[in-house]
Amino acid sequence: MTQTLRLTALLAAAVLPLSCTMGPDYQQPLTAVPESLPGPSGEHSIADRAWADVFTDPVLRSLIAEALENNRDLAIAAHRIEEARAITGVAASEFFPNLGASGSAERTRRARSITPPGTDREVNEFRLGGLLSYEVDLWGRVRRSNEASRAALLASQFGRATIETTIIAAVASAYIDLRALDRQLQIASQTVESRRRSLDLVKERAAQGVTSELEVGQAEVLLHQAEVSIPRIQNQLATTSNALSTLLGRLPGDIPRGRSLEALDEGIAVTGGLPSNLLLRRPDILGAEQDLVALNADIGIARTAYFPSLSLTGRGGMASTDLDRLLRSDNITLAGAADLAAPIFTAGRISSSIRATEARRDQALARYESVILTAFRESADALATHGHANEIVRRQQQLVDSLDKVARLATSRYEGGASSFLEVLDAERNAFEGQLALTDARRLKLQSVVAAYRALGGGWAR
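RESULT FIELD:
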């Protein structure tokens, strides 16, 4: 058996230096990167900061941490990484010989007509042996297979990072929506109370004959418009809370609250950083590139089918008709072989397989380029939105201040008998809608921070 092992090893050592690697070596595609991103820029991007340094509300931090611990999509991604790691181990095992063992016991009864005189018709045969086999990687099939499996493992790891970034952004976004809805519910409730007082005033004036039943009806309309907004907002709160609970990996339930909507964005400075860093930071871009690396290696695997394959085998063991004498040295059997197999006619199967693999590689290249374009568009959109968000909030606040002033003046004029209740109706309706719009503007400003952080590739541990 030792001689067979030595023979197999010598043959492998003699052939391996002659081997080569088929298929194209991977080269990173050239990518045009813009000189700058729109909006605020600086040497460092907001995405260079850890998510806990960007989203500083303690309650939001705890929710994000809970989601990263319990989210089911992340759990699936983690299992995909384990699967890819195991497949990488399978591919790496092809670098080494396969060694197996076998044993058998056989009892044969021969026909009398073919049994020599004086020979026992019943014969026992006992065998104990081993088999060593090794496929010589002449054309780099095993090397390309390992290259592809390693790239697939990296792609799965970047895939998990992409999901992680998405979950951080989704939790932050849902929490911002909750706080905005909380504020809108507060505005609606305060407006209902204010309009009930106005209705009481109008009814009192109508009882005194100062005003008409028409104005009473108008006051009731104004009250009901505010009242109907409350269940609508409450419904949105419920569905948003349920969606956030799912992100947290728990059943629907109450979500704790922290800072107010106005206080959530204190101290956040959004900068785009260097555009080239986006290609190194966004995990979906890095993952798409590893998909391209894997499919590029598959081309080499497909091309090796054109060429002969060389397999080395060695067999050794013991054979005897007497079990007690099986392990004696004179019962040793040895054999070695080198098998060479080459395709002659495959009816275009190999060439078609190569073309299909090349087409898959070209698809991966197009996806890689598409992911890059999407990344820059999302980054540009988020930075542009945030760049205008402060001005929108400032202008909307000015509008709300003016509408509140008009509403107070209209009410004062009505109480003084200088105008009809219709002016109050229009002024209060506009003031209510303006306050809701201001809340929405603040929400969109915060959402632009989340969008910028995600688009620029922040949120995952590198």
